[in-house]
Design brief:
Blueprint lengths: L4 H13 L3 E5 L1 H5 L12 E2 L2 E2 L6 H6 L1 H17 L4 H12 L3 E5 L9 E5 L14 E4 L7 E3 L2 E8 L7 E2 L30 H9 L25 E5 L8 H12 L6 E5 L8 H10 L3 E6 L17 E4 L2 H13 L2 H13 L2
Length: 344
């Protein structure tokens, strides 16, 4: 990672003076925590195009398969640890009261959750793991989940409005247990390699999906007792949550100015992401893009402008470096995080 000292100094100076800051984050931030993004050429899960499973039509056609996919994702997200970029963003939120984060990720966020530990040892003798979670002290009212969360669930019955947030039960029902080997490792069936290698990897994937599961084995609504539960995320073709959109619009309308727009781990070239970049620009924001892919150096539909910044590199390395002049070094951030842990 080679970052220009001049660009870092320029960015830090602006960050120090900025009061109203918006961050838009995407899959690149989750990837730094070891979570698959299911995008691009490698976006397969057990030989299925992962994007094709993220639709209401897919759930209607094969709810067992879709729940297996999301149960795997829930399990992996619960195992993930916040990376240094998550901690840095939380640290900036504690320093700057006018800072808000919009995330396109549905992993429920290492950004807001820190795993305190599991209580079953050895792993292969425990039927399930008891995982406690706590906030990483990113103020929840200033963290907006654009596409929902893997850990929100809701009833699919037309006559039932049951929904639940922050359900971290793993597995959500016994039939959706994701098996691990003796070392507690889950083999990720996603790969960017050849089709044959993908087939080989999937053949060895340890999961209860080899068993014949039916609708009766899936999560059902505890209220109406009839409807299937589904992940409370925004699938393709669905509207973004009204409450989240209203909260973001309220923040945008509170002032005529926005000082800084951070675009982290996302190309932000489609709506609504692109729209937020352009709205921030219209209120005077300078834009900083942090992305590992040099091809994603544009922000929004109009690209970068003269006074914007592009920092190429892994978000988990670049973000803490950029924020250091305001929130301190990484070791200091981790100390603060541990201090927060002790108070929970």
């Amino acid at each position: 990672m080679m970052l220009s000292p001049t660009e870092i100094e320029s960015f830090t100076t602006h960050l120090r003076s900025s009061q109203r800051i918006m961050a838009l984050i995407g899959a690149g931030l989750s990837a730094s925590s070891g979570l698959p993004t299911f995008r691009g050429a490698g976006g397969l899960w057990r030989n299925h195009d992962a994007m094709s499973l993220a639709t209401p039509e897919a759930f209607d056609a094969d709810p067992v398969l879709v729940w297996q996919f999301y149960s795997h994702r829930r399990h992996m997200a619960l195992r993930a640890r916040p990376n240094p970029a998550h901690l840095a963003l939380a640290g900036l939120a504690r320093k700057k009261s006018g800072f808000v984060t919009l995330t396109q990720n549905v992993d429920g966020g290492p950004l807001v959750m820190v795993r305190l530990g599991s209580f079953c040892e050895p792993r292969n003798t425990c039927p399930r793991f008891f995982i406690r979670m706590r906030r990483a002290k990113h103020p929840p009212e200033r963290l907006h989940l654009l596409h929902g969360s893997l850990f929100n669930i809701k009833c699919t019955s037309f006559y039932c409005d049951y929904h639940e947030e922050n359900n971290t039960t793993d597995p959500i029902v016994p039939a959706l247990t994701v098996a691990e080997n003796d070392e507690g490792e889950v083999e990720d069936p996603t790969t960017t390699t050849t089709a044959q290698q993908r087939r080989d990897a999937n053949a060895d994937y340890p999961t209860r999906s080899r068993l014949k599961l039916g609708i009766r084995d899936l999560p059902h609504c505890p209220r109406c007792r009839d409807g299937l539960l589904r992940p409370g995320i925004v699938w393709f073709g669905e509207m973004l949550p009204n409450r989240v959109m209203d909260e973001i619009n309220k923040w945008m309308s509170e002032s005529k100015s926005i000082d800084l727009m951070l675009v982290i781990g996302t190309s932000a070239n489609v709506h609504p992401a692109a729209g937020y970049v352009e709205l921030a620009r219209a209120k005077g924001a300078r834009v900083a893009v942090i992305n590992i892919d040099p091809e994603d150096s544009n922000a929004g539909l109009d690209g970068l402008r003269k006074n914007d910044w592009f920092f190429c590199g892994d978000a988990s390395e670049v973000v803490p470096r950029l924020f250091e002049g305001v929130i301190g070094k990484q070791s200091e951030i981790e100390t603060q995080s541990k201090s927060v842990s002790g108070s929970g």
